[in-house]
């Protein structure tokens, strides 16, 4: 994968990388210290000043070692880009308006092919992906809503699969059932039969079925990083329901033919989610950086995104004392319609979710929940 | 370095945890489930009860309790104390014998098993040869006589359980000594009874099932006399003077035989069938006790006329002209009499009867033979327990008033002190007065003194009087009609039959400072009661509250509202109802709280919640929490049954329809039809044989019962701005929703006229939608707010109103702290997401350190659906410790758990028993008692630590008793076999 190359880079060029950036028809060449560089923002401003385009909204892309055009839009993929410079780092700058032309189908097409080659089910991204024609515009990764991903391929045994289901604000059911069963384990004492928990049924049209990553008779090994050994079916059920907004299940698929295999020599493209490219071992992959939950450390205790998902809906009647009139009206409306909250809950919640995702900077928005002032 | 320091900090916290928390199951309160054997030691003054689950429990003076458990899970069929010793022998269902002793250890006695033994017969003999049917603990204290099913009597030396083979009494030896003409070809059957001659310990009577009794001389090893009874033998009693043997039989007769008479055939002095003429049931046990200068007491169980009263559980007591058939509430396990005098050989003073559901003690020396109130072994389940509520540290004034009210109710009990007085209770006096309230299915609330080891009844409140019920007419039927034969008298309080399940008590809340009590029941009734020291006649006015608030299109299909008496009702002294709220629909009340300072009661059902002002007697607030799509909650409990039926019907219809349609389309294609049918059948089979599976789905607002109100909480806190605290009401629902209302109370001088108002201030919808089971407001110091009136009574520090308050919301899955007044999440602790368990019960408790007197912490005590107890620190909500407590399968045990404010708790281990546990190192209520060995064995095996640590006063007292005990002739032979292992009953 990318690691050997980056090593070579270090060897040959010690501390400096060559950067060639292109904006429309202009090129700039400059050197960048490998270690002293700052974050993405700094780099972005540097490019803006070099190309004399301060204030112009641009998108950055770089050509990786396979010739794919990959975006640079945060610290992580910037570092990735820097580390993969061999020795040259090619930067392509596009204006935000004409973004689709440059960030177009070409590179994404290639990546899609790559996906196919790895033997992964394309259903990951859903049916919309496969249906579109080459000419169709593809939006930015952030325009898609990720519904599932395979994660931690690098740290799990090949026979296991860690699947993350994103419930988000959708009304689509998770849609699967679990049952008790008998699992066969190989132990130093020989083969042993132990009780296990298995997927017993997938609901048609449910999230679990549409991702294609879970199947009937898959054995459930972990729920959000916690081993289910010794836990009853009801306990596992409760754990899954409690984590349903951000469910990560590690399964041992009953069908072992579609496993993701580690390819050390050949660089595998993405292993799962739409935004990922490469599953580097020590440098965080884009998949990882867009979802801070990767594995071990973050699963056990609630992390920031989890918090975000877990936001509670809080309605306050703060100005009760100061604005008597308004509030009495409100109260009247409560009295007239006995169930305003509970009826409107799903909608208002969805609305709040959206506002949260758009990064709406209302004063009512808090990092750990939405507050709607009445 | 940093790491090291942090580590050091953790070990310090660990040490603190050890000083604060420890888990102990301390004592079992109530009546043992399924008792199966009874034993009594007059010399120790201890009572022993064996149960079907293999437990053995010893009781003496109140507070003196011991418990042991046999490793085998077999029922205890017989318990025998060794005369004049601290040992006792138990016989189990699996034919094993066990020796137990009370051993002194660090100044306290412990019940220990010291030996076990199973009879081994000759090789190849059938198991019946060694199947023990009767046991006699010989008065020498060294021998056990074991009668077996095969008719042999084995003699075993104790405590070592050494078989004395040469002294065994074989069936052949007995048969050879019996005249040919009597024995004929008939089998003597099993040994039914073994009794020792009270005046000659060398003589025992062997009673065989067939009826033959043989007096055997243990020394000479020969038969001395034969008593040829002809009826199946049930029990044998040797009178105290040694002159007569009384036998009872399966036909309901008993006979008196002279001992030592020359002519055997004329021995039968008297045969009587007390309830004769028509066939009678067996007399399973008979006892005759002499009185000084009066006629003897004759006591026997059973013997009732089979056809008319065969279903009664009776013990007949005959003394002179007085003849009473005590009619018990459940099957009689066994009984014995306690006798007066220093040697326990004088007049019988009390009759102790163990029946399946309670222990009844009858005073035989007071006119009318009244019942003596038992200080322990109370049947908690006299009507099924439906809820419980614990209040710690009751003020003395309220305590005394409740006791006074209770004393007026318990007048029909004997004034005599409790007659079983063995052992000394060395437990320190309880640190505080604790009250446990249990609500029952029949609308009764029982008040128990839960301060110490004995759960003692204090007062009984009946709420049924407020309503019209069917039971009103039945009461008269229980009165015995005059001149009835047999002369029945009902005794005991076990009465599991509720006349109206709607009366059932579901929630209780008592304010210990003001004496206001509120109880809520199954049919949506909420009563507010106040303590009145005198009886009063009053009308209770009902206020109907429509929780649906105009939601239409729904029909309640559950039970109807209770019918309130409109005429004035006379309420006895004690808690008297003065206000009644009835919810509409009359669904079961699921949450209840009372604020005595504000004089408000909040209540909730599956439809919504309300706030009632009990001073002005009107409703302040009604809030419907119902999800309009939630049909199940709307229709009531009955509809669920219907819906199952409906869904079954629908599925059958669907099958039928699909069959029909298949025929239509493929009528010509037989093969296809066959295939389709096969598939259908497979589907059906799958439906039936589908393994247990669980749906994995996020909870949604459409789930059933999301509107059910789980918890209600009053708090004086900062609800709207951070400078003014206001009274508030908080409600949590099953759907993870929290409602907060700001309450405006008129000033105290206008409290009676101006209305109380409530405005909704906040609503929080927890994203994970798990049921909200607890709400607590923490003050500026992070301490839970005190109870109402607690500060006014100087019993709690007033809360810190300067710092910011926090709201702790406890759902079944998470603990979450929010800031106030602006609600935003501050921290949380996930439970279910981590280990899959859910919060079932939660309480706030204060834990004092065992090392430093003045250090303590508040914490949350949590019981999960896995039966584990967790302690969560406040205000940082960190897991501290956890202990497994209840089996996860024991759903009713988990549901019954209540916590005290000082880290103890109670849960039901059977319908009739509370297990008490403690999580605190400082507050621990457990039996600490000492039983002195009778003098005989005292001198021989004196435990080294015994004399030094036992209090001086009691030692001298007990020594006096021991001197007297030494010369006594005891009644050890009383514990004969009982009904349970009686083979012949089935035959007869």
TrEMBL record, chain A:
UniProt feature, compositional bias: Basic and acidic residues: 363-374
Biological processes, Gene Ontology terms: cell division; centrosome cycle; establishment or maintenance of cell polarity; regulation of cellular localization
Coiled-coil ranges (or none): none
Bias-annotated ranges (Polar residues): 289-299, 351-362
InterPro entries the record matches: PAR6_homolog (IPR051741), PB1-like (IPR053793), PB1_dom (IPR000270), PB1_Par6 (IPR034868), PDZ (IPR001478), PDZ_sf (IPR036034)
Superkingdom in the source lineage: Eukaryota
Stretches with biased composition (Low complexity): 267-288
Gene3D superfamilies: 2.30.42.10, Phosphatidylinositol 3-kinase Catalytic Subunit, Chain A, domain 1
GO cellular component: apical plasma membrane; bicellular tight junction; cell cortex; nucleus
Disordered, as annotated region: 254-308, 351-374
Subcellular localization, as worded in the UniProt entry: Cell junction, Tight junction; Cell membrane; Cytoplasm
Domain PB1: 16-96
Keyword annotations: Cell cycle, Cell division, Cell junction, Cell membrane, Cytoplasm, Membrane, Tight junction
Family that this chain belongs to: Belongs to the PAR6 family.
Protein name: Partitioning defective 6 homolog alpha-like
Species in which this protein is naturally found: Gouania willdenowi
Upper lineage: Eukaryota, Metazoa, Chordata, Craniata, Vertebrata
TrEMBL record, chain B:
Keywords assigned by UniProt, alphabetized: Cell cycle, Coiled coil, Cytoplasm, Exocytosis, Phosphoprotein, Repeat, WD repeat
Domain Lethal giant larvae homologue as annotated: residue spans: 272-370
Superkingdom: Eukaryota
Name the record gives this protein: LLGL scribble cell polarity complex component 2
BP GO terms, sorted: cortical actin cytoskeleton organization; establishment of spindle orientation; exocytosis; Golgi to plasma membrane transport; regulation of establishment or maintenance of cell polarity; regulation of Notch signaling pathway
Family: Belongs to the WD repeat L(2)GL family.
InterPro entries registered for this protein in UniProt: Lethal2_giant (IPR000664), LLGL2 (IPR013577), WD40/YVTN_repeat-like_dom_sf (IPR015943), WD40_repeat_dom_sf (IPR036322)
Organism of provenance: Gouania willdenowi
Record region (Disordered): 936-963
SUPFAM superfamilies: WD40 repeat-like (SSF50978)
Residue spans of biased composition, Polar residues class: 936-955
Coarse class of the protein's main subcellular location: cytoplasm
One Pfam family named in its UniProt record: LLGL
Coiled coil: 663-690
Cellular component, GO annotation: cortical actin cytoskeleton; plasma membrane
GO molecular function: GTPase activator activity; myosin II binding
Localization per record: Cytoplasm
């Amino acid at each position: 994968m990318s690691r050997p190359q980056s090593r070579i880079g270090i060897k040959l060029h010690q501390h400096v990388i060559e950067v060639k950036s292109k904006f429309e028809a202009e090129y700039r060449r400059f050197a960048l210290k490998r270690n002293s560089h700052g974050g993405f923002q700094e780099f972005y401003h540097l490019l803006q000043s070099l190309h004399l385009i301060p204030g112009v909204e641009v998108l950055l892309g770089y050509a990786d070692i396979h010739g794919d055009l990959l975006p640079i839009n945060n610290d992580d993929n910037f570092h990735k880009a820097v580390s993969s410079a061999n020795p040259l780092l090619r930067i392509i700058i596009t204006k935000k308006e004409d973004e689709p032309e440059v960030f177009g189908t070409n590179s994404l097409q290639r990546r899609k092919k790559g996906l196919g080659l790895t033997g992964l089910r394309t259903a990951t991204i859903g049916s919309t992906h496969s249906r579109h024609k080459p000419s169709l515009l593809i939006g930015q990764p952030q325009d898609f809503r990720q519904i599932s991903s395979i994660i931690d391929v690098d740290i799990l045994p090949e026979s296991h699969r860690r699947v993350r289901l994103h419930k988000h604000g959708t009304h689509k059911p998770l849609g699967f059932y679990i049952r008790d069963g008998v699992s066969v384990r190989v132990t130093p004492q020989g083969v042993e039969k132990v009780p296990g928990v298995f997927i017993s049924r997938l609901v048609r049209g449910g999230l679990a079925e549409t991702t294609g990553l879970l199947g009937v008779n898959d054995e459930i090994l972990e729920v959000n990083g916690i081993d289910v050994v010794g836990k009853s079916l009801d306990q596992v059920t409760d754990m899954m329901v409690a984590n349903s907004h951000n469910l990560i299940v590690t399964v041992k698929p009953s069908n072992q033919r579609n496993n993701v295999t580690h390819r050390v020599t050949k660089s595998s493209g993405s292993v799962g989610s739409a935004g990922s490219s490469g599953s580097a071992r020590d440098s965080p992959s884009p998949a990882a950086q867009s979802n801070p939950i990767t594995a071990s450390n973050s699963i056990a205790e609630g992390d920031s995104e989890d918090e975000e998902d877990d936001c509670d809906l809080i309605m306050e009647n703060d100005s009760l004392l100061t604005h008597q009139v308004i509030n009495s009206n409100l109260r009247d409306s409560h009295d007239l319609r006995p169930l305003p909250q509970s009826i409107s809950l799903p909608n208002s919640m969805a609305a709040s979710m959206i506002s949260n995702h758009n990064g709406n900077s209302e004063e009512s928005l808090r990092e750990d929940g939405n507050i709607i002032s009445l | 370095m940093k790491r090291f320091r942090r580590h050091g900090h953790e070990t310090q916290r660990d040490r603190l945890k050890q000083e604060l928390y420890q888990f102990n199951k301390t004592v079992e309160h109530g009546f043992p489930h399924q008792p199966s054997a009874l034993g009594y030691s007059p010399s120790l003054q201890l009572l022993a009860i064996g149960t079907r689950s293999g437990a053995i429990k010893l009781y003496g003076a109140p507070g003196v309790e011991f418990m042991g458990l046999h490793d085998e899970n077999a029922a205890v069929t017989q318990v025998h104390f060794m005369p004049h010793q601290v040992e006792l022998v138990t016989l189990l269902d699996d034919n094993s014998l066990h020796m137990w002793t009370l051993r002194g250890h660090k100044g306290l006695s412990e019940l220990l098993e010291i030996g076990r033994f199973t009879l081994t017969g000759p090789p190849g003999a059938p198991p019946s040869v060694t199947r023990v049917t009767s046991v006699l603990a010989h008065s020498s204290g060294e021998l056990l006589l074991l009668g077996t099913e095969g008719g042999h009597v084995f003699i075993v030396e104790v405590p070592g359980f050494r078989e004395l083979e040469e002294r065994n009494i074989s069936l052949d030896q007995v048969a050879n000594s019996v005249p040919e003409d009597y024995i004929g070809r008939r089998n003597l059957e099993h040994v039914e009874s073994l009794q020792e001659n009270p005046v000659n310990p060398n003589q025992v009577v062997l009673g065989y099932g067939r009826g033959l009794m043989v007096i055997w001389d243990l020394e000479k090893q020969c038969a001395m006399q034969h008593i040829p009874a002809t009826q199946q033998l049930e029990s044998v009693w040797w009178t105290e003077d040694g002159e007569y043997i009384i036998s009872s039989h399966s036909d309901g007769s008993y006979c008196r035989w002279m001992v030592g008479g020359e002519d055997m055939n004329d021995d039968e002095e008297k045969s009587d069938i007390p309830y004769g003429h028509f066939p009678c049931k067996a007399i399973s046990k008979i006892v005759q006790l002499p009185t000084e200068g009066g006629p003897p007491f004759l006591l026997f169980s059973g013997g009732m006329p089979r056809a008319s009263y065969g279903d009664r559980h009776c013990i007949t007591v005959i003394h002179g002209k007085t003849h009473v058939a005590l009619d018990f509430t459940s099957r009689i396990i066994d009984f014995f009499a306690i006798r007066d005098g220093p040697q326990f050989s004088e007049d019988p003073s009390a009759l102790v009867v163990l029946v399946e559901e309670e222990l009844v003690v009858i005073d035989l020396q007071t006119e009318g033979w009244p019942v003596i109130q038992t200080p322990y072994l109370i049947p908690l389940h006299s009507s099924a327990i439906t809820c419980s509520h614990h209040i710690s540290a009751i003020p003395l004034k309220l305590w005394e008033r409740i006791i006074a009210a209770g004393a007026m109710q318990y007048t029909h009990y004997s004034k005599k002190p409790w007659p079983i007085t063995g052992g000394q209770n060395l437990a320190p006096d309880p640190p505080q007065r604790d009250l446990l309230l249990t609500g029952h299915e029949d609308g009764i609330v029982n008040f128990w003194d839960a301060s110490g080891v004995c759960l003692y009844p204090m007062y009984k409140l009946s709420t049924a009087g407020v309503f019209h019920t069917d039971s009103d007419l039945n009461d008269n039927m229980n009165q015995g009609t005059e001149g009835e034969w047999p002369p029945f008298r009902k005794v005991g309080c076990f009465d599991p039959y509720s006349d109206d399940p709607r009366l059932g008590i579901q929630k209780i809340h008592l304010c210990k400072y003001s004496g206001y009590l509120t109880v809520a029941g199954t049919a949506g009734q909420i009563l507010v009661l106040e303590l009145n020291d005198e009886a009063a006649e009053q009308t209770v006015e009902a206020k109907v509250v429509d929780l649906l608030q105009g939601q239409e299109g729904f029909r309640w299909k559950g039970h109807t509202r209770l019918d309130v008496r409109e005429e004035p009702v006379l309420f006895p002294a004690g808690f008297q109802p003065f206000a009644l709220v009835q919810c509409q629909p009359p669904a079961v009340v699921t949450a209840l709280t009372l604020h005595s300072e504000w004089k408000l009661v909040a209540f909730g059902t599956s439809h919504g919640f309300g706030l009632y002002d009990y001073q002005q007697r009107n409703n302040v607030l009604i809030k419907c929490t119902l999800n309009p799509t939630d049909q199940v909650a709307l229709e009531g409990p009955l509809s669920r049954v219907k819906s199952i039926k409906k869904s079954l019907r629908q599925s059958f219809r669907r099958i039928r329809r699909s069959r029909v349609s298949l025929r239509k389309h493929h009528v010509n294609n037989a093969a296809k039809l066959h295939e389709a049918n096969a598939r259908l059948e497979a589907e059906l089979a799958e439906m039936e044989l589908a393994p247990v599976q669980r749906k994995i789905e996020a909870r949604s607002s459409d789930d059933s019962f999301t509107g059910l109100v789980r918890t209600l909480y009053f708090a004086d806190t900062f609800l709207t701005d951070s400078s003014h605290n206001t009274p508030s009401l908080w409600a949590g629902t099953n759907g993870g929703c929290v409602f907060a209302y700001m309450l405006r109370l008129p000033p105290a001088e206008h409290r009676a006229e101006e209305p109380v108002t409530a405005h909704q201030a906040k609503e929080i919808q927890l994203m994970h939608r798990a049921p909200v089971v607890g709400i607590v407001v923490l003050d500026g110091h992070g301490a839970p707010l005190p109870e109402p009136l607690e500060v006014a009574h100087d019993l709690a520090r007033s809360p810190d109103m300067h710092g910011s308050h926090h709201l702790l919301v406890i759902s079944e899955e998470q603990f979450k702290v929010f800031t106030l007044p602006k609600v935003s999440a501050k921290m949380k602790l996930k439970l279910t997401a981590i280990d899959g368990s859910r919060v079932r019960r939660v309480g706030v408790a204060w834990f004092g350190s065992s090392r430093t007197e003045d250090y303590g912490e508040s914490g949350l005590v949590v019981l999960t659906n896995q039966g584990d107890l967790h302690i969560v620190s406040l205000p940082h909500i960190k897991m501290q410790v956890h202990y497994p407590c209840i089996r996860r399968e024991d759903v009713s045990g988990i549901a019954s758990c209540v916590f005290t404010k000082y880290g103890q708790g109670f849960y039901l281990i059977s319908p009739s028993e509370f297990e008490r546990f403690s999580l605190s190192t400082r507050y621990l209520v457990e039996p600490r008692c000492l039983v002195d060995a009778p003098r005989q064995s005292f001198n021989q095996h004196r435990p080294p630590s015994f004399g030094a640590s036992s209090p001086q006063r009691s030692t001298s007292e007990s020594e006096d008793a021991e001197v007297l005990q030494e010369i006594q002739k005891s009644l050890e032979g009383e514990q004969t076999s009982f009904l349970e292992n009686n083979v012949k009953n089935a035959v007869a």
